[in-house]
Design a protein that fits this description.
There is one protein chain. Helices cover about 65% and strands about 5% of the residues. With about 375 residues, it is mainly α. The protein folds into two domains: about 5-40 and about 180-380, no CATH class; about 45-165, abc type-2 transporter like fold, CATH 3.40.1710.10. It has a four-stranded mixed β-sheet with strand order 2-1-3-4, sandwiched between helices. α1 (about 5-15) packs across α10 (about 220-250). The two termini are about 20 Å apart.
C-alpha cells in the first residue's frame, strides 16, 4: 500500500470504531463545556456569611455594615452563638462566619487592640478566599475608623488625620490574570491535558484492538504503519487543538499573548510526542478497555504534578523528575509561559526541545513495539 492508501485506511479504522469516535470527538467537545461551566462567572461575589456579635456596640454594628457593603460578602443572619453559626454553614445556608468578641469597642478605644475571628467553608477555595478577603477588608476599614477617632480626640486636623491614616494607597493591577478568575487561570493547562489524555486513549484503543488479529497493520512495515498513524492522529488533533486554543479560548475570554505561528510551533512537537507515546503504549495492551481506565486514572496526578494548580515546591522532587517524561508537562508549562504570561520564545525553548527529544525516544519505542506485535501475531498464525 502507498502512504496515502495506508493513511486513509487508518482513518477508516478510526471512524469505524464507535468507542474511539465517542472518546475523541465526543470527549473533546464534552470536556470543552463541562470543565469551564461552573466558573463562567469568573470571580465569586456576594458570598453569604453569618455574624456572631458578642459586643453589640455601635462600633461592632458599624463593622457589620462595612462587611455587608463589601462586594465579596453578604450577611444573611446574626447568630447568638458560634454553634448556631456553624449549623447554618453545615446546612448550606452560609459559607462563612464573623465573630466579634465581647469588649471589642472598649479595647480598641483603650488602644489594647481586639481580635476578630472569621472563617468559612474551605471546600471551595475560591469561595473561601472571597469570604476571607471581604472580612479582612472590612476589619481594616473599621481599624482605620478607630484610628481616625483617636487622632481627632487628640486635636489633630481632620484633613491631616485622614491623610496619615490613608498615606499609602495600593493600586493592584493583575498582570497575567486580569479578571482574577478561575477560567483564564486553569483552563489553558487543562485543555492541553485533555488533548493529551484523549489522544493517548484513542491510540491505545485502536492499537489494542488491532495487535491481536491480522489486518493491513500486519502486512505493512512498522515504519509505514507508524508514519500513517502519526499523520492521521496529528492531523485530527491539529483540528482539535485549533478548536480549543482558537474558538474555546475566545469564547471563555482566555488571554492569548503568543502569536499564531509561535503557538502552532509550540503545539507541533507536543502532538508528535504524544502520538508517538500513545502508539508505543498501545503495544502494551490487548484489551480495549485498559487504555481508557489507565489514562483516566492518571489524569489527576498529571494535573497536580504539572505545577499550575498546586505549588511545584510542595510536590516531592522525585515525582517532579519522573513527570518530565510525560509530554503534557512541558506542553502545559510552555502554553502558560507563552500565551498567558507573554514570554518570548527563548523562555520556552528548553521545554520545546524536551518535547522533540520525547518524540524521538517514543518513536523508537513505538517502532520496536509494532515490530514485536507483528511478529507475535505472525507466529500465532
Amino acid at each position: 500500500m502507498t502512504f496515502w492508501a495506508l493513511y486513509f485506511a487508518e482513518w477508516r479504522a478510526l471512524l469505524a470504531d464507535k468507542a474511539i469516535v465517542v472518546t475523541l470527538f465526543g470527549g473533546v467537545v464534552f470536556y470543552s463545556v463541562l470543565y469551564p461551566l461552573p466558573y463562567l462567572h469568573q470571580v465569586p461575589t456576594e458570598q453569604t456569611i453569618v455574624v456572631v456579635d458578642q459586643d453589640n456596640s455601635s462600633l461592632s454594628r458599624k463593622l457589620t455594615r462595612h462587611a455587608d457593603a463589601s462586594a465579596k460578602i453578604h450577611i444573611i443572619a446574626h447568630a447568638n452563638s458560634i454553634n448556631e453559626a456553624k449549623q447554618l454553614i453545615q446546612q448550606g445556608n452560609a459559607y462563612g462566619l464573623l465573630v466579634i468578641p465581647e469588649g471589642f469597642r472598649r479595647n480598641l478605644l483603650l488602644g489594647k487592640g481586639a481580635t476578630l475571628s472569621y472563617g468559612g467553608d474551605a471546600s471551595y477555595f475560591l469561595i473561601y478566599s472571597a469570604v476571607a478577603e471581604g472580612l479582612v477588608a472590612a476589619g481594616m476599614d473599621a481599624g482605620k475608623q478607630v484610628q481616625l477617632m483617636g487622632l481627632l480626640a487628640r486635636g489633630e486636623n481632620p484633613t491631616l488625620a485622614d491623610q496619615n491614616i490613608n498615606s499609602v494607597n495600593i493600586n493592584a493591577v493583575p498582570v497575567f490574570n486580569p479578571s482574577l478568575g478561575y477560567t483564564p487561570y486553569v483552563v489553558p493547562g487543562l485543555f492541553i491535558l485533555i488533548l493529551h489524555q484523549t489522544l493517548l486513549i484513542g491510540t491505545g484503543i485502536l492499537g489494542a484492538g488491532q495487535w491481536r488479529k491480522k489486518g493491513y497493520w500486519q502486512q505493512e512495515s512498522p515504519m509505514a504503519i507508524f508514519s500513517a498513524r502519526m499523520a492521521m492522529f496529528v492531523s485530527l488533533y491539529s483540528v482539535f487543538s485549533s478548536f480549543y486554543i482558537g474558538y474555546c479560548f475566545y469564547v471563555y475570554q482566555v488571554t492569548v499573548l503568543g502569536t499564531l505561528a509561535e503557538t502552532a510551533l509550540m503545539m507541533l512537537p507536543f502532538l508528535l510526542a504524544t502520538t508517538a507515546a500513545g502508539i508505543a503504549l498501545s503495544c502494551l495492551f490487548t484489551r480495549r478497555d485498559l487504555p481508557t481506565q489507565i489514562f483516566l486514572l492518571s489524569s489527576m496526578p498529571i494535573l497536580f504534578v504539572a505545577g499550575f494548580v498546586w505549588p511545584i515546591a510542595l510536590i516531592p522532587e522525585p515525582l517532579v523528575w519522573m513527570s518530565q517524561v510525560i509530554p503534557a508537562i512541558p506542553a502545559i508549562n510552555s502554553m502558560l509561559t507563552l500565551n498567558q504570561m507573554g514570554a518570548d520564545w527563548s523562555a520556552i525553548m528548553p521545554q520545546w526541545l524536551q518535547m522533540w527529544l520525547m518524540f524521538a525516544v517514543f518513536s523508537g519505542f513505538a517502532l520496536a513495539g509494532i515490530r514485536r506485535r507483528q511478529k507475535e501475531v505472525n507466529q500465532a498464525h
